[in-house]
Amino acid sequence: MTAIFKREFKAYFSTPIGYIVLAVYFFFLGLLFSVSYSYGDPDITAVISGVTLISAFATPVLTMRLISEDRRQKVDQVLITSPVSLTGIVLGKFFAALSVFALGFAPTVIFRAIIGAYVQVSITAYLYALFGMILLGAALISIGMFISSLTESPVISAILSIAVNMVVIYMTNFSQMTNNTFFASLFEKMAFIDKYVSFTENIFSIPDVVYFLSIAAAFVFLTVRSMEKKRWS
Amino acid sequence: MIEVNGLSKSYGTHRAVNDVSFNISKGEVVGFLGPNGAGKSTIMNILTGYISLSEGEVKIDGFDILENPENAKRRIGYLPEIPPLYVDMTVREYLYFIYDLKKVKFPKAPHIAEIMQLVGLEDVAGRLIKNLSKGYRQRVGFAQALVGNPDVLILDEPTVGLDPKQIIEIRNLISKLGTNHTIILSSHILSEIQAVCERVIIINKGNIVADDTLENLSRELSKDSKLVLSAICDGEKTLEAIKAVEGVEQADMSIEEDTTVNFVIKPIEDADIRANISKTVTNLGGTILSFKVEAMTLEQIFLSLTEEVIEEEYEEEIIEENEEIIEEEEAQEDDSDI
User: Fold this and answer.
1) Taking CA atoms, what residue in A is nearest to B103?
2) How far is A226 from chain B (nearest CA, A)?
């Protein structure tokens, strides 16, 4: 698993993909921070939660070629025939993408230090917001990775992932379109954006942590099954 | 070392591999031979655990590939048909990655350096794989299979796309490795199999049609060997004399141009009749122009074994078609009756 993690992580930076994703996060985080700073009310949690929409587009870029490219180039043969379990392969790739994603939030450490120099704000508020965003990223990445395992084309994988991400993040909006109270509350309860809210309010909400972790685990599992299925078909 | 029992693989209704069984003991070099689409690569992919099997069992050094995959895979080095390379890595980076992936215990840098020296990759160690030529990529694929020094090497068409000089190099390398590895090699280049393998498994349409040592295979077919003699002589008289020679089972002749006569002589099994034939012809005043033994080459063995099946099926198809035509005709007759 570590071998695959190391290779995939490095691979992000041997192609422009890693740099582009980092640049996008750095730019928008910086933009949001400077805007909130200029209003005289610097709020680090708002800066972090402000890039949720960016994540809907950025994580598919990280995951689009994660599984599909290997199969296209036939490199999966060397991975699958090596003494590593499929779960190990998938987890290695998953954590590589998640690490690049988390690295995108590196500037917030500096922003937090700048704010901390002026006002007393609790450190947990910042850490929870960051932790919640990484959990949300983990869920999006696992979904993207699963979609990547279904197709051999990175482009199709990326487009599909973006569409799915938009739905799972902003599902709340669907609740207004339906009169059925069951579906309305289901959409509201399941939307990633709503699950993330508690983390921005300086609350470490265990159910929401479990929610994101189980989504991530479920799609990692599905990715393994999808690769397994290719072997058995 | 490798045990395969009743191995079958189906893709939907298509049966790619059909009830294949063989055993390969330690240190053997075995050639897989078969036309394109015969199932060679499928069998290799199953042996290495890349794809699953539908029925049967595969054991590598006693470890079942499905039940104990990690132990089985640890013993195999696999070079697939298309070398599985990360083209955005340098050769050294890639081999280091494979080293980590296979959890090899040898000291890293010397082990990889040794392999690179063995397959001739030292000059390109620092270059990106995507900038390498096909021959070098093939070598990187080969090097990848050797990482960790596995006991079993499975090589799917290792010399495809190489130039003649590289082919000889790789062949020599396989022969060298064959002294202390168990090797399965697939190819449709027959001379290659002849050059490096002791034993040949011929596969056609997912079935094993022959599994024997090269010697036995050629001996088996040398039963059909013939002597071809061309001479300037009196045809009829000489033919009679040849037929009378001890050890001759059958002899035919054909007259070419005016004076040259060709004889095709089939000896009784294992009898060496060359000297007697030669004497007989010269005693009758003939002059021998050429005299050769026509034994079947591996190429002919291969064609004869794989063609039989094709012909049989073709005949079946014709019979089926004929039946259909007859049925149709009958149907038409019925119509006209009405």
Assistant:
1) A83
2) 13
State the alpha helices, DSSP H only, in B229-297: 235-244, 274-283
A114 CB within 8 Å of a chain B CB = no
- Cβ within 8 Å, pair B97-A7: yes
Residues of B contacting chain A (CB within 8 angstroms): 11, 45, 48-52, 69-71, 73-74, 76, 78, 80, 82, 84-89, 97-98, 100-103, 144
Burial of residue A153, with CB atoms counted within 10 A of its CB: 0-12 exposed, 13-18 middle, 19 or more buried: middle
Regarding whether B247 and B204 lie in a shared domain, the answer is no
Q: Do A84 and B78 touch (CB under 8 A)?
A: no
Q: What is the pTM of this model?
A: 0.81
How many H helices and E strands in chain A? Answer: 13, 0
Shortest distance between the Cα of A155 and any Cα of chain B, in A, equals: 19
Q: What is the mean pLDDT of residues A103-121?
A: 87
Beta partners for residue B182, in sequence order: B152
Whole-angstrom distance, CA of residue A85 vs CA of residue B70: 8
Residue B331: inside a domain, yes or no?
Answer: no
The sign one gets for the Cα dihedral B121, B126, B128, B132 is negative
Q: Are residues B235 and B203 in the same domain?
A: no
Q: How many CB pairs under 8 A join A and B?
A: 69
My answer on whether B152 and B169 are in the same domain is yes
Residues B44 and B180 in one domain: yes
Q: Quick check: is B75 in a domain?
A: yes
What distance in Å separates residue B212's CA from the closest CA in chain A? 28
For the stretch B301-314, pLDDT in tens is 777 777 765 555 55
What is the amino acid identity at position A183? F
Residues of B in contact with A83 (CB under 8 A): 69-71, 73-74, 102-103
DSSP line for B121-144: -GGGTTSBGGGS-HHHHHHHHHHH
Kindly state whether residues B193 and B252 are assigned to the same domain: no
The predicted-structure confidence for B47-85, as pLDDT tens digits, reads as follows 998 988 888 999 998 899 888 888 899 999 999 988 999
Higher-confidence position of A231 and B22:
B22
Kindly state the tokens that stand for B35.
């036309």
Q: Where are the alpha helices (DSSP H) in chain B?
A: 40-47, 69-74, 91-101, 108-119, 134-146, 164-178, 190-196, 214-222, 235-244, 274-283, 298-337
Does A19 touch chain B if contact means CB atoms closer than 8 Å? no
The residue among B279, B294, B309 that closes a domain is B294
Predicted local distance difference test score (pLDDT) of residue B270? 66
Average pLDDT over residues B194-213: 86
If you search the block for the tokens 């081999």, which residue do you land on? B95
Place of tokens 């396989």: B174
| Residue B224 Cα, gap to closest chain A Cα (Å) | 43
Q: Is B176 found in the same domain as B30?
A: yes
